[in-house]
Structure formats: C-alpha cells, structure tokens
Specification:
- The protein is about 55% helix and about 5% strand.
- With about 300 residues, it is mostly helical.
- It folds into two domains: about 10-115, DNA polymerase, domain 1 (Orthogonal Bundle); about 130-295, Intergrase catalytic core (hpI Integrase, Chain A, Orthogonal Bundle), CATH 1.10.443.10.
- A two-stranded antiparallel ribbon has the order 1-2.
- Strand 1 (about 180-185) and strand 2 (about 190-195) form a beta hairpin.
Length: about 300
C-alpha cells in the first residue's frame, strides 16, 4: 500500500497544467464569476502554459518560484507594469485554487515566494479630447462602419465602462430615452447603472439605423457580419481610427480614465463617480485626483493674491 495513502496524506497530482487550468475555469464558472473574468483568467493562464511548456515544464506541480519570476521578466519585454501585475494576480488566484482543491502534502505554493511587480502610483494618461476629435473626423457618415465606430468612440468615453462591460451590452440594456445603460456583469459580478448623454445617444441611434430589426437580447455592438464585437475588434477600431487620424493609438482603458478625470474636473462628487465607475472603494479614484493638479495650478494662477497685486 502506498505509504502516503496509508498515512492519510494527499498524494501530489502529477497533472498537466492544461488539465488543471480547465478544472479551475470550470470551478470559476460554477461560482458564477462574470464571463469577462473567466475569459481573462483563461487567456492569462493560456499564455503562461504555452510559455512554461516551451521551458519543458508541463505539470502544475513542477512550477517553481524561479520559473514564475522568469515568466514575469519575459512579460516585461512586451507589457508595462500593469500588464505584468494582471498576470501575477491571475497566477496567484490559480495557485491558491490548486492548493485548496488538492491540498497537496509537503508542497508549498510557489507564488508565496514571488513578489508582485511594483506598480507606478501615477495613473496612465487619459485619451486627449484633441486626439478623439481627430479620430472621430475619420468616421465616414451614413456608412455602417463609420457610424458604428463614431458611436463606439463616443459611447465608450461617455459611459465610463470597462471595455469588457461595454462589449457585453445588449440592446435591452440601453434606454435611449433616459440614457440609462445597465451593466449586468461588472467586475466581481456586480451590476450597476451608468448613462449616455444626448450626443452619444444621437450617435448610437445613427449606428442602430444600419441594424435590421435587432431584438432586445441582441448584442449592442456588432461586426459587419453581425457577430458580437470582441475585445480585439474593439481595440482594432481604436487603432484604425488613430492611424487614419495620424495620432497615437489610445489604450481602451484610456477612455475610462478620460471619463473619470473629466467628471472630476466638472465637479462630480466622489461617491457618485465611484458608483458610475463600479469601483469597490475610492482608492483608485484618488489616483485620478492627481491628474487634476494642472487644473489646480491654473486656478491658483488665476486667483494668486500676490500675482494679482496692483
């Protein structure tokens, strides 16, 4: 009889990384995590698995702290600190699940000895309104792609939603009269309501006129073939319009940052902004406050009692 089994100890499962990742994702779906979260977990773990197999590491048990550190260094060649940190968090979640699921005896979670990549405290810049105007000017009016892309750019900025939330919207989630836009599967599976202003809704209506009697549960954003627009497709729209406009392509999250900073500059209170953005707390919004220092400098220049002395 196996000694470990005889002692009632768990036997370390020599299972392929792919098999464990599939089991992990099934568990995520069973716990009703949002589809975007499950998709992100799957994407990040697929990147890691492919790279690990290139290093001749094919089982979860064989993953070491050194391997994980080298993987993060590998990501650093193509990703910024934020992108590395996303991969780190996903791997940490996966290995915690593996530890709970199998309770392997005499095994130490390799992520417990890997430190997270240091993040800059300065938020990345938002998309500039001048760049956005130039991109909008490339959208051909009264064409499907032109009207769709214009509506995408304006609505993505105006609602402040995450890209994954934006893409998961259905027609029934938008009230074209009030502008209410219901996010059903936000971060952490939470739902919330944000809004579209009059100009964004006008652009949205121009795009919807190209759709042939879509039903309420149909996707809001679609390709020319009628399929739901995917993340890569949304990024391609931003890149194409930036290229045609001769400006640097913005990150998709730059639209959300622009919404947050614009709202702060317009005097929106922090609690309302927190609810519109779907943040669990105010810590991230406080980082946006730093980007309004230029506004404070300008305000001081206008009101400086010394500079305004006669």
């Amino acid at each position: 009889m196996n000694t470990a089994a005889a002692q009632g100890l768990s036997i370390l499962p020599q299972t392929p990384i792919l098999q464990d990742v599939r089991a992990f994702l099934i568990d995520c779906e069973a716990r009703r995590l949002s589809p975007s979260t499950v998709e992100r977990y799957g994407r990040e773990l697929r990147y890691f698995r492919v790279w690990a197999e290139e290093q001749d590491v094919t089982t979860t048990l064989a993953v070491t702290p050194d391997l994980l550190r080298r993987y993060l260094l590998h990501l650093g060649r193509t990703r910024n600190a934020g992108g590395q940190h996303i991969a780190f968090r996903v791997l940490k979640t996966f290995f915690r699940w593996y530890e709970r699921e199998y309770e392997p005896h005499d095994w130490r979670n390799p992520m417990s000895r890997v430190q997270a990549p240091k993040l800059s405290q300065e938020p990345l810049p938002p998309i500039s309104l001048d760049c956005l105007r130039a991109m909008l000017a490339t959208c051909e009016p009264r064409t499907f792609l032109g009207d769709r892309d214009r509506a995408v750019l304006l609505c993505l900025l105006d609602c402040g939603a995450r890209a994954s939330e934006f893409l998961s919207l259905n027609l029934s989630d938008v009230d074209l009269v009030t502008g209410a836009l219901r996010i059903r599967h936000g971060k952490g599976g939470k739902s919330r309501v944000t809004f579209l202003g009059a100009r964004a809704r006008k652009a949205l209506l121009a795009y919807l006129r190209h759709r042939c009697n879509p039903v309420g549960e149909a996707p809001l954003w679609v390709t020319a073939e009628g399929r739901r627009l995917a993340y890569n497709g949304l990024r391609a729209i931003a890149q194409k319009r930036a290229r045609l406009a001769g400006v640097k392509a913005p990150a998709l999250h730059a639209f959300r940052r622009a919404f947050a900073i614009g709202a702060l500059r317009a005097g929106v209170d922090l609690v309302s902004l927190q609810r519109l953005l779907g943040h669990a707390d105010l810590s991230v919004i406080r980082r946006y406050l730093r980007q309004t220092e230029e506004d404070l400098r300008a305000a001081h220049a206008r009101g400086s009692p010394v500079d305004n002395l006669l």
